[in-house]
Amino acid sequence: MITFKDLVVGYGRAGDILRGVDFTAAESAITCIVGPNGAGKSTVLKACSGLLRPRAGQVLLGDEEIGGRPPAEILRRGVVQVPQHHGLFPSLSVRENVMLGAYVNRKERARNRQRYEEIAELYPLVAERADDKAASLSGGQRRTVEFARALMLRPKVVLLDEPTLGLDPKASKQLAASVTTLNKAGVTVLMVEQNVRFGLTLADHAVVMEGGRVLHTGAADALLADPHMAQLFFGAPPRQEAS
Ligand SMILES: Nc1ncnc2c1ncn2[C@@H]1O[C@H](COP(=O)(O)OP(=O)(O)O)[C@@H](O)[C@H]1O
Ligand SMILES: [Mg+2]
C-alpha cells in the first residue's frame, strides 16, 4: 500500500500546492482520486513517482519512505506510472513493445520470457497480436499493451493519470477491463480520473481533493450514490459558496 502523511509539495520557488495531504491507497485495491481541475491530483502522483520532492511529510510504500527518492529507485521498488498517449513504438511488434517494459532488467532473459508468457495469458490481446506492429492497433488496444508492458516490471503499485483522456467509450471500456485485470493480478492501483462516474465505478476507494487538500475518503460506490457529491460533480454549476 501507499500512504501519504501530511504531504506538502510545490513547484520550484512557488507556494505549496499540496497543503498537507493524508490518505492511504489500500493494498491490492483500486483507489481513484477525483476533484476539480487544479486540485493537486496529478501533483500527488508526481510526488509518488519521485518527479517532485516533498517539502514536508511522507510518502510510504508499505513501511518504507519513498518520498524524495530518485524516480529510478522508486521504479525499482515497484511503483510504476503507466504513461498515457504515444507510449508505444508503432513500428515495433506488440511482443517487442511489451518486452521493452523489462528493459532495465534486460539481462534476466529467462525470467523476462517467463514473465511475458504470464502477461500474454493475462491479456489475450497480447498473445493474439504478438507479431503485429503496434501501429495496427486501435486506441483502446494500445492502452492494453501499455498496461501489459508496465507489468513486465512486476509492479506493486501502478499509477494512472487520467487514463481515459482522449478515449472513446469503447476504448474506455477496454481500459477499465485492463485496470481490473491488473488489479486481479494483485497490483495496487492509484489513479486520477476526470470522468468521475467512470473512475468511481471502477475503483474500490475514493479520495476527493480540492485546493491541495483531501476533502473526503471513503468507498467509491458510496460516494457515487451520495447526492451532495452528485451535485458537486455531475450537473450542478460550480458551487458559489466555495472560497
Ligand atoms: N509544472 C508546474 N509548475 C508550476 N505549477 C504547477 C505545475 N503543474 C501544476 N501546477 C499547479 O499546481 C496546481 C495543481 O495542479 P495539478 O496537480 O496538475 O492539478 P489536477 O491534476 O488536480 O488538475 C495547479 O494550480 C497548477 O497550476
Ligand atoms: Mg491532473
Structural write-up:
There is one protein chain. With 243 residues, the chain is of the alpha/beta class. Helices cover 37% and strands 24% of the residues. It is built from ten helices and ten strands. The protein has a six-stranded mixed beta sheet with strand order 6-7-8-3-9-10, sandwiched between helices. Helix 6 (139-151) packs parallel to helix 7. The two termini are 33 Å apart. 40% of the residues are buried. The mean pLDDT is 91. The site of adenosine-5'-diphosphate has 11 residues, from helix 1.
Judged by helices, strands and strand pairing, the structural class is alpha/beta
User: What is the correct CATH architecture of the domain at 2-85 and 155-233?
Assistant: 3-Layer(aba) Sandwich
Strand order of the largest sheet: 6-7-8-3-9-10
By DSSP (H or I, 4+ residues per run), the number of helices equals: 10
CATH topology of the domain at 2-85 and 155-233: Rossmann fold
**Average residue-wise pLDDT:** 91
Bound ligands, each once = adenosine-5'-diphosphate, magnesium ion
- Give the low-pLDDT segments: none
Based on CA inertia axes, which overall geometry fits? globular
Please summarize the sheet with the most strands.
Answer: 6 strands, mixed
* Helix percentage range: 25-40%
Q: What is the terminal separation in angstroms?
A: 33 Å
Care to count the β-strands? 10
Order of helices and strands: EEEHEEHEHHHHEHEHEEHH
